[in-house]
Predict the structure.
Amino acid sequence: MKKETSGSTTSSRRKFLKYGAGFGAALAWPNSTVLGANDDIRVGVIGVNGRGRHHLNAFSRMKDARVAAICDIAPDLLDARTTLLSAQQKITVKGFSDMREMLEKGDIDAISVATPNHWHSLAGIWAMQAGKDAYVEKPISHNVWEGRQVVKTARKYNRICQGGTQSRSMPTIRAAVDYVHAGKLGKIQFVKGMCYKGRPPIGLGGGGEIPPGLDYDLWCGPRPIEKPLKRKRLHYDWHWFYAYGNGDMGNQGIHQMDVGRWFLGEKKLSPRVMSIGGRLGYEDDGETPNTQIVYHDYDSAPLIFETRGLPRDKESQETAWGKNMNHPEEFPELGGVAVMVQCEEGRVYCSSGGKVKVTDNKGVEMTQIKPPNDNDQALEPDHFKNFIQAVRSRKVSDLHADCEETHISSALCHTGMISHFMGKDAHDEEVREKIKSDNFLAGRYAAMAEHLMANDVNLEKDNITLGPWLKFNPENEQFEKNGDAIDQKANQLAKESYREPYVVPEKI
């Protein structure tokens, strides 16, 4: 592709829209990494409103990296961020409203993606096709299929691609995983991931406004243009709408899903999955479950994931939700955004912030997990720095969270949600009857039901969505042997349709 040396922003944007899904292929050059001045890795950050601020801070403060370009569709925000970063780094930071233009003209070696979920995969794919390495926030995909396309792209173009599952870089959690894998507590019996995180209602009536100057077509990108908005706020509340977000399981919970799978040592998606849950306890515009159990039936041991967005009881809804959430039954003094690993001879707790505790099965603390020497580079606590280290070494093995790891964990969230999509409304008694043969699942549902009743949810009147058990082939990442009609519907949900020209390519 010949670069433009002149012309208006409008004509430039038309040019990029013309290339559309074929954009990346036109720019691809494998194995290229051209370092910037002073041997810095030049990073372009895409999406700088929320999580993107952390990306800007991390890369701009590193000694061997710098933010060379910023991309955002909100002009005021773009101007503010480029001005601030230029002053802080004492260089000129380029600003772009269209990531395709940034990939061609931004003079960057790598990109960091902090957009809404529906853009994650495509942004990463376009960047890698354009010869850039990519840090892609969690979940690395909006559906199962496109996550695998990210992995294929990284492998074809020999790109370094790190997923934003930062727990992989926490020394205490890495040490805890090693401790369990060494057999210190015996065989794992089950792993429970928890996202007990307060989510008050987002309001009713929708009708939110598009901020002035924001390019809403680019914001929607691969997904449908929603007009009028079904929510009051364009930003952040997209998490609770299927077209753009993945609910709290795919927002916060992906971190704990990833750590849970890491403990199990499973390298593929689960062969069976099912979901129980719904959006319960209030009425608002949101679509995704605020209360949910997802059960992944791995051969080694079950991985169960629990989302609870309501506080511990109805009274707590009148006060500060975030300070009145449930705690794990096994570790009642600790927070509920965490992973609990139940083994034959004890259990391990890992919080989202890296706190680790090991007890016997009676709750008596057994040992304190301490990571090896802090100078060990394999335990670098900074996930962004680990990415830059791998960009320099060109070794995928140096990554703490290679894109394939994050793809699999993201897809565990997606397959659980597919069971939810395909579920049917059921009352409490029906749910209990359906799952009574599985004592573990029945017990976890009973705990969820107790939590809902404490929030005045009437389980005899309010329906819960009971998802089907779905068989899944981890080798080809397809739903199989559920019956033709069920397989077809489930596989359609695992691969979305895309809006031109923002199309995840079929052939990598």
About this structure: The chain has 15 helices and 18 strands. Residues 403-421 form the longest helix (19 residues). Residues 423 and 474 are 22 Å apart (CA to CA).
